[in-house]
Specification:
globular, 144 residues, mainly alpha, 6 helices, two-stranded antiparallel ribbon
């Protein structure tokens, strides 16, 4: 089997791209005095889309392990962005809700997130978008 350079390995290129995306987004957030990490933003955004979801469901919806989600929620709670409420009839489960501060943060960050994605996709045609989405979905399915 012929050895190939990392720069020719798609998964290396995907990882490199994701890291650059996160670095760019973090810089943009910092310029706006937003102290959220990318992972915190993903969890916060998902809560806004699925208000009242529990921590286990959040882990599945964000493709993160439950322990990471718990740590992220602890940090978001300290910033008064979310609150956890016990679920009736299940002492081990908590529903997660945005606070008013959390809702304001989602409203503030959403335009930045959109601008960040737009920047990354600059110069791609609608056909490129469709191909990229189809290819990434196929790779995901191959591993599922």
């Amino acid at each position: 089997m012929k050895d190939i350079k990392l720069e020719e390995v798609y998964f290396f290129l995907l990882e490199r791209t994701v890291r650059q995306f996160r670095k760019y987004a973090q810089t943009l957030f910092a310029e706006q005095d937003i102290t959220l990490s990318g992972d915190q933003w993903v969890v916060l955004k998902r809560i806004s889309e699925s208000e009242g979801t529990n921590q286990r469901e959040l882990a599945e919806l964000t493709y993160k392990d439950p322990a990471s989600v718990t740590r992220i929620l602890d940090l978001l709670e300290k910033q008064s962005l979310v609150r956890r409420e016990p679920v009736p009839n299940d002492r081990r489960t908590y529903a997660v809700h945005l606070t008013n501060v959390g809702k304001a943060m989602v409203e503030k960050v959403t335009p930045l997130a959109i601008a960040t994605r737009r920047k990354g996709l600059e110069g791609l045609s609608p056909e490129d978008h469709a191909h990229l989405k189809r290819i990434l979905q196929k790779i995901y399915e191959n591993f599922s």
